């Protein structure tokens, strides 16, 4: 392979780039192709065959129907997934969107290898290692092996792998990060050609409409500009630092701000404010001409704003009455509420020194678990050679370190992760940008370390082939270690879970027609939502078909009303289901139902009604949905109850500016319970109720009876429940069922509702008693 001039030159090699010689050489492109193709092949082989649990059902539904998912809205992901499932001409809807995760995950891996190959090769060349080797073939293979190996270590790390084989937003987030880094690195060699810089700024803004963790690069990105182009970087960085200083000052004087939460929060925030202020002072002291390149700075910020402008999708989609309309963003205030995630519990960054120490250990333990301790230590080799690197390479490494600290430690400060294992599982995916950045350091450690060995130990050059083969083989250990927890080939439990909610089998009839289903857990509301609005309404050729369920290809339960039991105290959520199911729901054929909408909203809804299936998406018969008055009544009922008893743990009620604020899970669920009871009382005569329970609703205790893997809520209390439901995965030999059940219980991505896990464990006890039994789903055991 022949190298481009940029690889073997010095800092002055940027002038050579004015020729037609490609910046990325043949070896760089080979690294990209090998890494991305291997990753994509592995992801394709281990791809989930249909819908999975957690957020997959929600995301699939909004992608299929152009809806609005949970905050902050994931606008770019939703639009891409909607396009993707229409471009791919085969497979069920869920499989197609799973494939999109694999595609963008593989692209991220390819870009990682490309960047390591180009930048790592440049580092080794400019530090003199490669020139002393003298054998171009060895140089090419060392760089190719190191870059591909490090990229594939990332590809088969637990988080990256798990998120690239299911429907989720994190693989796309990794792609955005690596694309931004590649563009910035390329720009740094021709700083006067700024279109790549503007494109990187646009992609950063666009990435914030996918997952907002990358907002933590707000300082690191302009800092790299400052390290590369002093004047432009100075003018770009100064406004960011000024905003940080002003923001910290505002928090200092604002009661109830994060600064006022405690000593640690105050110290952390103050350190950022002082650091930004000192840096801003030194920028000013660099000399006259501050903001002399204001036109270019405005262009950079305009590119960022243009990317974030895709959040306009949220109110546009909300106006069409989509099947999931989270936040019901009909007004600018609703849009801001949704984008900044005001629905969720407020951040609580205060912690003790012991908690901080534990979280730092947890952070690095997570990093170690992604790459193994041996591979993680390879990154330190790059630090060993830091002083030998050229100035531009040291600047690049310093930028990567700064980015790593911001998206790692600053995110840990804001999220304040608990030590609960379940919470850690749900939050560690947000550290994927850290894993991507760390993989670059591992690649640099491999390239620089091998380059040093071959240059200083000439005798080793004769063994270059087996050493290169060993480096190429390093990711095999990651595959072996992480295979069991991350491969999803044949994992159809998500679909089975959704299908059996409506068709339990055994002695149970199908779910009653026009029933109302209260969903509790994420999978208990999102998977049925997917079954109702996607599997029931998409073309037969795009439905999931399973041999053990002959009717799966014809599944159609669009008659079911799906309600989230945990969100009934949320005004915006109630407004969205009122638009779906309530009396007076919007109908373009009835202008009176559209009076509360602006002209553009009425126009969009009329279009969606005719061309996007909104006229057929929901059950024909309206049901009673509470209004503002009923929500206020539920809140008063709860407050009256609270006056008659002592508060329970987790109950918190505040009165601010005359408004009652209910906080804490216990309090919110109590209000939810009153709203759910009102819905039950108003609709039970015409509709059967079912519930997949998460947080308990006490009034329901006397009403339910087992119904497969969920509960049926009877119209009147029943004296006792005599049956315990046992979940069995299929009609197979007993030992085979046990193997599958154990696999699911320990699969970290398949977090089955508690009652289902308990049922599996009970069944396994029965299995130990009688190994010879054959079982069908569900098994009903008399107690």
Distance between the termini: 73 Å
Radius of gyration: 28 Å
Structural class: mainly alpha
Number of strands: 11
Strand order of the largest sheet: 2-1-5-7-6
CA-based shape: globular
Largest sheet: 5 strands, mixed
Average the pLDDT over all residues and give the rounded result: 86
Query: Can you give the helix content as a percent range?
Result: 55-70%
Descriptive overview:
By secondary structure, this protein is mainly α. Helix content is 58%, strand content 5%. The protein has 30 helices and eleven strands. The strands form four sheets. It has a five-stranded mixed sheet with strand order 2-1-5-7-6, with helices on one face. Strands 3-4 form a two-stranded antiparallel sheet. A hairpin with a 2-residue loop joins strand 6 and strand 7. Helix 29 packs antiparallel against helix 30. The chain is globular. The chain starts with a helix and ends with a strand. The N terminus and C terminus are likely disordered.
């Amino acid at each position: 392979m022949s190298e481009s001039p940029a690889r073997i030159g010095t800092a002055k090699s940027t002038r050579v780039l004015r020729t037609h010689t490609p910046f990325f050489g043949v070896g760089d492109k080979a690294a990209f192709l090998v890494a991305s193709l291997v990753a994509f092949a592995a992801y394709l082989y281990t791809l989930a065959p249909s819908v999975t649990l957690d957020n997959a059902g929600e995301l699939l539904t909004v992608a299929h129907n152009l809806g609005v998912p949970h905050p902050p809205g994931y606008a770019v992901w939703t639009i891409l997934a909607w396009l993707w499932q229409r471009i791919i001409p085969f497979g069920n809807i869920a499989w197609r969107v799973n494939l999109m995760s694999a595609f963008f995950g593989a692209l991220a891996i390819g870009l990682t290898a490309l960047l390591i190959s180009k930048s790592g090769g440049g580092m080794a060349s400019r530090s003199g290692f490669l020139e002393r080797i003298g054998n171009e073939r060895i140089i090419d293979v060392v760089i190719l092996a190191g870059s591909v190996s490090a990229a594939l270590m990332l590809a088969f790390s637990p988080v990256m792998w798990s998120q690239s084989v299911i429907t989720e937003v994190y693989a796309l987030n990794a792609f955005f990060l690596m694309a931004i880094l590649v563009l910035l690195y390329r720009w740094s060699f021709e700083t006067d050609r700024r279109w790549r810089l503007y494109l990187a700024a646009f992609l950063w803004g666009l990435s914030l409409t996918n997952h907002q963790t990358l907002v933590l690069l707000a300082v690191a990105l302009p800092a790299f500009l400052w390290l590369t182009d002093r004047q432009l970087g100075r003018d770009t960085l100064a406004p960011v630092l000024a905003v940080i200083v002003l923001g910290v000052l505002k928090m200092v004087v604002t009661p109830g701000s994060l600064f006022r939460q405690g000593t640690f929060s105050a110290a952390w925030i103050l350190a950022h404010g002082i650091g930004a202020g000192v840096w801003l002072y030194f920028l000013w002291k660099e000399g006259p001409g501050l903001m002399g390149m204001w036109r270019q700075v405005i262009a950079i910020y305009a590119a960022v704003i243009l990317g974030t402008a895709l959040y306009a999708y949220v109110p546009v989609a909300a106006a069409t009455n989509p099947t999931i309309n989270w936040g019901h963003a009909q007004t600018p205030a609703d849009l801001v509420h949704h984008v900044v995630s005001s629905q969720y519990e407020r951040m609580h960054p205060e912690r003790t020194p012991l908690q901080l120490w534990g979280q730092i250990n947890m952070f690095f333990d997570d990093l170690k678990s992604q790459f193994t301790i041996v591979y993680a230590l390879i990154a330190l080799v790059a630090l060993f050679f830091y002083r030998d690197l050229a100035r531009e390479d040291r600047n690049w490494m310093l930028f990567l370190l700064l980015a790593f600290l911001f998206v790692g430690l600053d995110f840990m400060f804001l999220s304040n992760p608990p030590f609960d294992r379940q919470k850690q599982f749900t939050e560690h995916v947000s550290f994927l940008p850290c894993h991507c950045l760390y993989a670059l350091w591992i690649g640099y450690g491999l390239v620089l370390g091998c380059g040093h060995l071959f240059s200083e130990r000439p005798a080793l050059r004769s063994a270059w082939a087996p050493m290169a083969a060993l480096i190429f083989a390093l990711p095999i250990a990651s595959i072996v270690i992480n295979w069991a927890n991350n491969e999803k080939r044949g994992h159809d439990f998500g679909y089975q879970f959704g299908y059996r909610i409506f068709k339990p089998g055994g002695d149970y009839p199908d779910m009653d027609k026009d029933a109302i289903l209260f969903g509790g857990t994420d999978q208990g509301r999102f998977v049925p939502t997917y079954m109702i609005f996607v599997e029931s309404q998409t073309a037969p050729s795009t439905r999931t078909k399973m041999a053990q369920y002959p009717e799966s290809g014809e599944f159609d339960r669009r008659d079911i009303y799906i309600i989230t039991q945990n969100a009934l105290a949320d005004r915006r959520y109630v407004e969205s289901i009122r638009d779906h199911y309530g009396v007076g729901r919007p109908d373009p054929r009835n202008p009176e139902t559209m009076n509360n909408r602006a002209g553009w909203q009425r126009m969009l809804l009329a279009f969606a009604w005719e061309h996007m299936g909104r006229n057929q998406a929901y059950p024909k018969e309206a049901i009673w949905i509470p209004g503002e008055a009923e929500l206020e009544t539920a809140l008063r009922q709860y407050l009256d109850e609270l006056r008659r008893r002592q508060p329970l743990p987790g109950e918190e009620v505040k009165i601010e500016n005359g408004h009652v604020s209910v906080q804490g899970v216990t309090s919110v669920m109590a209000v939810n319970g009153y709203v759910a009871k009102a819905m039950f009382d108003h609709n039970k005569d015409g509709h059967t109720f079912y519930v997949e329970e998460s947080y308990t609703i006490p009034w329901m205790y006397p009403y339910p009876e087992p119904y497969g893997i969920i509960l049926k809520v009877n119209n009147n209390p029943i004296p006792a429940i005599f049956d315990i439901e046992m979940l069995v995965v299929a009609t197979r030999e007993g030992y085979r069922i046990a193997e599958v059940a154990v696999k699911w219980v320990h699969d970290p991505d398949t977090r089955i509702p508690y009652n289902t896990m308990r049922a599996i464990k009970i069944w396994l006890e029965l299995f130990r008693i009688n190994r010879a039994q054959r079982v069908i789903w569900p098994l009903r055991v008399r107690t």
